[in-house]
Design goal:
Distance between the termini of chain B: 52 Å
Oligomer: heterodimer
Strand content of chain A: 5-15%
Largest interface: A-B, 45 and 49 residues
Order of helices and strands of chain B: HHEEEHHHHEEHHHHEEHE
Largest sheet of chain B: 3 strands, antiparallel
CATH architecture of the largest domain in chain A: 3-Layer(aba) Sandwich
CATH architecture of the largest domain in chain B: Alpha-Beta Complex
CATH topology of the largest domain in chain A: Aspartate Aminotransferase, domain 2
Strand order of the largest sheet of chain A: 2-8-7-6-5-3-4
Shape of chain A: globular
Shape of chain B: elongated
Number of strands of chain B: 8
Order of helices and strands of chain A: EHHHHEHEHEHEHEEEHHEEHEHHEH
Number of strands of chain A: 12
Radius of gyration of chain B: 33 Å
Helix content of chain B: 40-55%
CATH class of the largest domain in chain A: Alpha Beta
Number of helices of chain A: 14
Strand order of the largest sheet of chain B: 1-2-3
CATH class of the largest domain in chain B: Alpha Beta
Helix content of chain A: 25-40%
Chain lengths: 404, 324
């Protein structure tokens, strides 16, 4: 058996989505901007996809949903264009975000800081979320934008977007949320919460890679990131990626219809896995209250087992998981989210993220429970943290010097 | 960046078979107890390096025969990634049968070489090289404990880049000899900074005592000073062209005071040196006439020629005098 538990990284494309896309490669391939029938042939399907998108997040008719190449583009677009519109060509100078945003937000903010923009990185509490009242004290008259993710990719923790939206509305500040980990996993209703911009990515909800979107409330002005042939009303140029737009529409429809039932099914499997791991293993900890987490995510820390070592053993057991910790990433850093939460440095090197999908089965969960324990046992047997014979006097390790 | 870097490498696929095999099945993982060691009349040494909070921790066990300082049994425990476990295992293997004095000469490079499948292909990708550095550190620590000396006494030079084991002395020499100006050049010449990159500048994976950026800046500053000193020496020996700007101004002023100014003053005029510019073909001396010289017909012909000829004769044939 092989089990894919890295659905916060990307998901399998639903075969029904592939099926919806297929005709738009070699059968209906015209450029939708062309006047002839080859071009217009795709219009009904694109319109359907647009409707599916609007319905998926309950957007209003005065709102825009612009297709982009990915959520990284959507995030870059909002941050860079708010900078151009409100800071370079306006009287603002400040952006507020959080310590644990996706790199497409954090790296863009670092870039903007190099351009002279002031950026505030809000801290998170021990649950890994930003408390709405923290935001209030950091908004100034010069604040152009607040950007806070809806749910975190590492922990699955859900942020108080409704409260944050109200504060931004009250203070007259634009609010952007990176909704990548929320859309398709939990109910997202942009008429229930106040967000001016929301980024989305199809491949996180069983759609194809290479297509994302940006929701824009009331068609708020925002200088385009990509200039060109005035596609999508001039908001985002580039020939419409027809099959992928259709795929994204189909995917959001499948992910959001009866979402409560889907969530309940995924949550039951997730909780069973989480309970089993907590019961069978000593010295383990799961980050964040599960009631306030996306129903598919577990970030578990296993004392004495370094994250990449654990991934290696899981991979040998044909289980795909992930870690943001130490050796696994090219940057060799500890899990930044865990450090931000205030977890011990030890824990930051032992985090393993398991993320399920609606395709995860009960048999797969059983298999993971069994193999996970084996991997922990083997690695703890090798681990110095679980050694019995202690160092010769004077042979203890000094201060850890591998820190930032 | 180039074609081969477009798709970031698959870290695990770059491990040698030996690394993979030892990670899956380490040969020397385990512990040695005091009872086991003393029963055989041996001395047990247990040394730790790193910590869980660092992301890497290793504990090395040596059972040493005090009669000949030979490591007769060795085990390890490791909290770390695959390469950390594999390199700890290989380090333990390399210690076996050696005397403590021999073992302390084992470096992380030896461990990495021993993990290679073929001599020309690295056992691990560059960013994983640091995982074997701990193996070297923990051996020194164990040897220090056994011999009752400070672990740092085994290191006769300061190692700046532990991954590539490049010393401060080597770096300083290479920078000077090859007139290196960037850290990238240093990495090209020495491999220092090419692996975990901690030693390049503060803020990397690991805090270091010395950083390449600082060493480069220091050595460049020294080189500049040396150049200046050489120029000063040259100046004091009368080599005008090698002089620094200030020396040149002083020299010119000296000549002007000695053999030119008096004649100008006699006619109710004077001059001052404004600037000096060096080019490959000329040393341009900009002057300004004062008093009666200002507007005098001779100031752009005979007088100017006389000033230039004097400076040329006394200082350098490259001098051109330009009134402003």
């Amino acid at each position: 058996m092989q089990v894919y538990l890295d659905n916060n990284a990307t998901t399998m494309v639903d075969p029904a989505v592939v099926q919806a896309m297929v005709p738009f490669f070699s059968e209906v391939y015209g450029n939708p901007n062309s006047l002839h029938r080859y071009g217009t042939a795709s219009h009904p399907a694109i319109t359907k996809a647009i409707n599916q998108m609007y319905k998926g997040i309950n957007a209003g008719d005065n709102d825009d949903i612009i297709f982009t190449s990915c959520a990284t583009e959507s995030n870059n677009w909002v941050l860079k264009s708010v900078w151009i519109d409100k800071i370079v060509n306006g009287d603002k100078n400040h952006i507020v975000t959080t310590e644990i945003e996706h790199p497409s937000v954090l790296s863009t903010c670092k870039f903007l800081e190099e351009q002279g923009v002031k950026v505030t990185y809000l801290p998170v509490n021990d649950q890994g979320i930003v408390e709405a009242h923290t935001l209030r004290s950091f908004i100034t008259d010069k604040t152009a934008l607040v950007s806070v993710m809806w749910a975190n990719n590492e922990t699955g923790m859900i942020f108080p977007i409704k409260e944050i939206g109200e504060i931004c509305k009250e203070r007259g500040v634009l609010f952007h949320t990176d909704g990548v980990q929320a859309v398709g996993k939990i109910p997202v209703d942009v008429q229930d919460v106040h967000v001016d911009f929301m980024s989305m990515s199809a491949h996180k909800f069983h759609g194809p890679k290479g297509i994302g979107a940006l929701y824009i409330k009331n068609s708020e002005a925002l200088t385009p990131l990509l200039h060109g042939g005035e596609h999508m009303g001039g908001r985002r140029s580039g020939t419409l990626n027809v099959p992928y737009i259709i795929g994204m529409g189909k995917a959001i429809e499948l992910a959001t219809e009866n979402i409560e039932a889907k969530m309940a099914s995924i949550r039951a499997k997730r909780d069973r896995l989480e309970d089993a791991l907590l019961a069978q293993l000593e010295d383990v900890m799961v980050v964040g209250n599960r009631d306030n987490r996306t129903p598919n995510t577990i970030l578990i820390s296993i004392r004495g087992v370094e994250g990449e070592g654990m991934l290696w053993d899981l991979n040998n057991a044909l289980i795909g998981a992930s870690t943001g910790s130490a050796c696994a990433s090219e940057s060799l850093e500890a899990n930044t989210v865990m450090l931000a939460i205030g977890a011990d440095n030890e824990l930051a090197h032992t985090g393993i993220r398991l993320s399920l999908s609606r395709f995860t089965t009960d048999e797969e969960i059983d298999y993971v429970i069994e193999r996970f324990e084996n991997a922990v046992k083997r690695l703890r047997a090798i681990s110095s943290s679980y050694a019995k014979v202690q160092p010769t006097p004077g042979g203890e390790a000094g201060e850890c010097h591998i820190h930032h | 960046m180039a074609k081969n870097d477009l798709l970031g490498g698959s870290l695990w696929d770059q491990y040698s078979n030996k690394v993979t095999t030892l990670m899956n099945n380490p040969q020397h993982q385990g512990e040695i107890t005091e009872e086991e060691a003393s029963a055989a009349g041996h001395k047990l040494i247990v040394a730790d390096f790193g910590a869980e909070s660092c992301g890497d921790a290793v504990r090395l066990y040596w059972e040493v025969d005090p009669a000949n300082d030979t490591i007769v049994n060795s085990k390890f425990k490791s909290f770390g990634c695959g390469t950390a476990i594999a390199s700890s295992d290989m380090m333990t293997e390399l210690c076996l049968g050696k005397t403590v004095q021999e073992a302390v000469k084992i470096t992380n490079i030896d461990v990495e070489m021993a993990l290679r499948d073929s001599p020309d292909v690295p056992a691990v990708p560059p960013q994983k090289m640091h995982c074997s550095v701990m193996a070297y550190d923990v051996i020194k620590k164990a040897a220090g404990l056994y011999l009752g000396v400070d672990e740092n006494s085994f290191e006769d030079e300061i190692i700046v880049c532990e991954c590539a084991r490049v010393s401060l002395g080597t770096l300083r020499e290479v920078i000077k000899l090859n007139d290196l100006k960037t850290v990238e050049q240093i990495t090209d010449y020495t491999k220092a900074g090419g692996f975990c990159k901690s030693c390049i500048k503060p803020g990397g994976h690991e805090a270091r005592e010395y950083y390449l950026v600082d060493i480069l800046a220091d050595v460049r500053a020294e080189m500049d000073q040396e150049k200046m000193r050489a120029a000063a020496d040259a100046g004091s020996h009368g080599d005008f062209e090698a002089m620094t700007l200030v020396q040149k101004i002083k020299a010119i002023d000296g000549i002007v005071d000695e053999s030119i100014r008096q004649f100008l003053i006699m006619d109710g005029g004077n001059m001052e040196v404004i600037d000096i510019k060096d080019s490959p073909d000329y040393i341009d001396v900009y002057i300004r006439y004062l008093g009666a010289c200002n507007g005098c017909a001779s100031s752009s012909t005979g007088t100017l020629y006389a000033i230039e000829a004097t400076l040329k004769e006394k200082l350098s044939q490259k001098i051109r005098v330009l009134p402003i």
